[in-house]
Design a protein that fits this description.
By secondary structure, the protein is α/β, with parallel strands linked by helices. Helix content is 33%, strand content 16%. A 4-stranded parallel β-sheet has the order 2-1-3-4, with helices on both faces. It has one domain: BRCT domain (Rossmann fold). It is globular and about 40 Å long.
């Protein structure tokens, strides 16, 4: 998974890292953080895709990819050069 500046991301649930830290990392990477999942959302970060939360239900209904905290962190790392 690759995230690009300008994409929209939402967060749902509890994470190992404090949510404000995840939001700050997303914003430093140029992502736009939105409070809810809409048809414009590019990815939902949720550690429990089976939680049944409103955000997860919306992502599933709209076909928005759901990734966990680890996949999100990996997507923020720069690609290796070479």
């Amino acid at each position: 998974m690759t995230l690009r500046a300008g994409q929209l991301v939402a967060f749902s649930g509890h994470f190992l890292a404090p949510r404000p830290d995840l939001v700050a990392r997303a914003e430093r990477a140029g992502l736009r953080v939105e409070p809810t999942v809409t048809e414009r959302t590019d990815v939902l970060v949720a550690n429990d895709a089976g939680s049944g939360s409103a955000a997860v239900r919306a992502a599933l209904a709209l076909g928005v990819p759901i990734v966990d905290e680890y996949a999100f962190e990996d997507a923020l790392r720069p690609a290796p050069v070479g």
